[in-house]
Amino acid sequence: MSLRIIPPEIASQQEELARLIQRHAAADGTHGTAVGALHFLRSSRVMEPIHRVSKPSICVVAQGAKTSALGEERYVYDPSAYLVTSVQLPIIGRIVEASPEAPFLGLEITFNTDDILKVAQKTDSIGDGETGPGIMVNPTTPELLDPIIRLVKLLDKPEDIPFLAPLIVREILYRVLQGEPGALMKQFAVSGSYANGVAKAIHHIKRDYDKPISIEELAKEVNLSPSALHKHFKKVTNLSPLQYQKMIRLQEARRLLLTEALNAADAGFRGGYESPTQFSREYARMFGRPPISDVKQMRDSINGFEM
Predict the structure, then answer these.
(1) What are phi and psi of 70, to 5 degrees?
(2) Out of 15, 54, 210, 289, which could bridge 85 as a Cys pair, Cβ 3.0 to 4.6 Å?
């Protein structure tokens, strides 16, 4: 499976990156590294969909293929293209190409808003003020893969990581901002933009996900009108604020069920649901199974994959 024909230079870089990832991630699962912003993911099999809240980041695939869904939109990426997320988004990821002979090998590099703004201020990615999606797929380039490979190689020189890793991560972000995502990513960091207002609204919803949401009060907090908040929130996330909150609530309830051994009613209550029946109904609609059977299935099959 490939999104397009991969030029020889990129193919060679991806082969080198795959070897490096395989060396640092010898077993299936998600692997943190001495570079805090860098994580690896390896899988020897295709996987069930995994729900998680993404951070501002890029996800690069060296071998195999993966999809991420947000609302009604589905994004496919493999060695020819990488995924960019500019804000925290409740995405559904699935590895769709992997085998024991050719495992899925990928990495994620996370950024923060200050990093984005500092780098964007020194690039030509000024933007036109238009709100765009908070997630997109962009073609992989040799200029992007070069610093990524250097960042991974830095793991073999831990004494150099404190000084060089931040510089290389900033270089990677610079390369991302030079591409199509550049102007869109900057909008989220620019105070007063609609996208920045949406980013603030996302922060409020995620922080207080278990509390009732008032669109009027939320809009006032982020200095937008209710209609502007709804319109631009939808552009960024493919979801309404209420749909976004529901996904966050259900994902958190699922996490509680898995990690704290709560019963369904208690997990739903801590997630902001007053009715156990409503919680179970919406949980099954999102995850495909009622809470208890879903958690049993997850414990039987999941192998620590979170990326």
Answers:
(1) -140, 115
(2) 54
Task: Describe the strand order of the beta sheet including 89-97 as a list of residue ranges.
Answer: 50-54, 89-97, 65-70, 73-77
CATH, domain range 248-301:
1.10.10.60
8-188 maps to which CATH number?
2.60.120
Concatenating the DSSP letter of every residue in 98-121 gives --SSS-EEEEEEE--HHHHHHHHT
- CA–CA distance, 90 with 165 (Å, rounded to integer): 28
Q: Quote the DSSP letter at residue 74.
A: E
102-149: pLDDT as tens digits? 999 999 999 987 788 788 777 665 555 678 899 999 999 999 999 999
Which tokens go with 81?
């293209």
The two three-digit tokens of residue 34, written as one number: 């001495």
Using 70 as the pLDDT threshold, list the residues of the chain that sit under it: 1-4, 123-129, 301-307
Structure tokens at 1: 């499976």
Q: Which CATH architecture has domain 190-242?
A: Orthogonal Bundle (1.10)
